[in-house]
């Protein structure tokens, strides 16, 4: 459902895509992901949305954010909010839905096709609005995880549903081979 001459934009809900890929048991190679969609059409923009914990000395997502920023992705980040719930558990909140929606609406007049990497049903009204503006919308997520990572309403609204598991061989990082990793050998003394 892609045409070579259509102008594409990718909108990646970082935490949602990470959770879907993790549920399927693989990591995404974002260089391969970008190349795959450049092959499918004229890729104008690839947006990646994520919230970052500001007060942590080291964030495990920081190297990915920096790599994406230097390798052709438009990064949209904001500070995550930390709070303690009623049970005393530390929670982190960092919803990027509004930022993604505003950017998609602004870009809609300049693209033919938007690819949304999220299964969040809150995006159903966004997809409907984009479609009314003449933009085709594909959604990438998974129904093969337990539970499925995409809402039924979102899947039905999209022009095209792309099963993330079907992209595994195209955009998945090869699993690390433990036989290639250095090993320490203990030598018993006499």
UniProtKB/TrEMBL annotation:
GO molecular function: RNA nuclease activity
Gene3D superfamilies: 5'-nuclease (3.40.50.1010)
Residues annotated as domain NYN: 7-165
Domain of life assignment: Bacteria
CDD domains: PIN_LabA (cd10911)
Family annotation (PANTHER family): SLR0755 PROTEIN
The protein's name: NYN domain protein
């Amino acid at each position: 459902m892609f045409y070579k001459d259509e102008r594409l934009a990718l909108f990646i809900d970082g935490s949602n895509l990470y959770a879907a890929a993790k549920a399927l048991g693989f990591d995404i190679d974002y260089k391969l992901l970008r190349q795959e969609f450049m092959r499918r059409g004229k890729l104008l923009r690839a947006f990646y949305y994520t919230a970052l914990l500001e007060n942590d000395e080291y964030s495990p997502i920081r190297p990915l954010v920096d790599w994406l920023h230097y390798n052709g992705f438009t990064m949209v980040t904001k500070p995550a909010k930390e709070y303690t719930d009623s049970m005393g558990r530390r929670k982190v909140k960092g919803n990027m839905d509004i930022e993604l929606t505003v950017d998609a609406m602004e870009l809609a007049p300049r693209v033919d096709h938007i690819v949304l990497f999220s299964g969040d049903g809150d995006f159903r009204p966004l997809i409907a609005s984009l479609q009314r503006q003449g933009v085709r919308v594909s959604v990438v997520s998974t129904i093969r995880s337990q539970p499925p990572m995409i809402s039924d309403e979102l899947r039905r609204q999209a022009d095209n549903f792309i099963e993330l598991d079907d992209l595994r061989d195209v955009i998945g990082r090869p699993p690390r081979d433990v036989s290639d990793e250095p090993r320490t050998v203990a030598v018993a003394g006499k």
